[in-house]
Amino acid sequence: MEKKGLVLEGGAMRGLWTAGVIDVMMEAGIKPDGIIGVSAGAAFGCNYKSQQPGRAIRYNKRFAKDRRYSGWHSLFRSGDYFNAEFAYHIVPHDYDIFDSETFANNPIEFTVVCTDVTTGKAVYHQLDHIDYETLEWIRASASMPMVSRVVSIGNHQLLDGGVSDSIPLAYYESQGYKRNIVILTQPAGYRKSHNALMPLMRLALRHYPNMIEAMDQRHLMYNSQLDYVTQAEKEGRCLVIRPEGKIPIGHLCHDPKRMQLVYELGREVGYKQLDAIKEYYR
Fold it and tell me: Which residue numbers does the motif DGA/G cover (predicted)?
C-alpha cells in the first residue's frame, strides 16, 4: 500500500491558516503515515502527531501581546523575535502543555526541514519523541533569517528550512511517500519575487556565504517547486490544498482577532476539502 504523506509549507503567521486546515483533518480522524513540515509547518504541524487540535491557535492568541513570547523587545534582548526559551520550551512545558506521550506513541512519522547556514542546503530530521533537543529542531526550522539567531544542534548550524526546501514534495516522494497532500499558504497563481531585503540579508549573514547564495536564489527555487507541485497535481501524484485568496495576515502579527480570522479561514477550506481528502487517502 502506498504511504500517505502530508507536506506542510511554512509562511510564518500564515501557518495559522494551515493550522485550521489540519485541525479539521485531525478532528475527522484522518491519519497520514507521515508529515513533513517546514518552518511554521513544523512548529504547528507537530500538534498533528501529538493529536492536539486547537493548540496552535490557542497559545498564539494567548501570548500574542506578551513580550516574553515574541516582539521587538525579545529581538533586542535575546536576538530572537520569537523568544527561544519562552516560546519553544517554557510554553509547551508550563503553559499550554505539549502531549509528548501521545507524540512518542503515535506511529505517524514527523520530519522537520531546516537549512544549514554553512552549506545553504536542506537538512531533514525525523522527530520521534519530545525533549529539549527535539524542540530545538522545531525552533531551527522556524527561525527566520535576520530576526533569529543561528541554532546550533550537533554539527549543524541551522535556520529556516524554507530557505532551502520550501515545499518538500520531491524529497518526501524520494522517501517512499507516493500519495501526498500538500498544504500551501499562497493562493493559485502566486509567484515569489526576488527578496528586496537582500542587502540587509548579506550584512546579517556575511559569515555564511552559502546561506547568502541560497537566500538570493530562493525565489527561483520556490517557483520551481510550485511548478513541480502543479505538475504532480495534474498527474494525480498529490492533492493540493491552498487558500482561495491571499491570507490576510503578515509574517508577524500580534492581533488575536486577526489570528482567529486566519485560522477560521483555514478551517473553512478544510471542511470544503474534507471529502476530497478522505477520498485521496482512501
Answer: 160-162
Question: Is there a catalytic annotation at residue 23?
Answer: no
Residue 6 near residue 34 (C-beta atoms within 8 A): yes
The whole model's pTM is what? 0.96
For the CA atoms of 196, 200, 203, 208, the dihedral, rounded to the nearest 10 degrees, stands at -50
Which runs of consecutive H residues, i.e. helices, occur in 205-240?
A: 209-216, 218-234
Q: Report which of 73, 135, 74 is spatially closest to residue 103, judged by C-alpha positions.
A: 135
Low-confidence ranges of the chain (pLDDT < 50): none
Q: Which of 23, 80, 160, 165 is catalytic?
A: 160
105: amino acid identity, one letter: N
Helices 256-281 + 15-27 axis angle, to 10: 50
**C-alpha cell belonging to residue 180:** 501526498
The pLDDT value given to residue 1: 74
174 part of the active site:
no
d(CA 40, CA 160): 9
Strand segments, DSSP code E, in the chain are 3-8, 34-38, 109-116, 121-127, 151-153, 156-160, 177-183, 238-241
82-86 contacts, C-beta under 8 A, 24 or more apart: 82/142, 82/148, 84/139, 84/149, 84/151
Give the active site residue among 23, 39, 116, 164.
Answer: 39
The alpha carbon of residue 190 and the mean position of all alpha carbons in its chain are separated, in whole angstroms, by 18
- Distance between CA atoms of residues 110 and 127, nearest Å: 6
- Taking a C-beta distance cutoff of 8 angstroms, is the pair 160, 141 a contact? yes
How many other CB atoms are found less than 10 A from the CB of residue 49?
Answer: 24
Q: Where are the alpha helices (DSSP H) in 69-194?
A: 72-78, 84-85, 100-105, 132-141, 169-174
Q: How far apart are CA 12 and CA 20, in angstroms?
A: 14
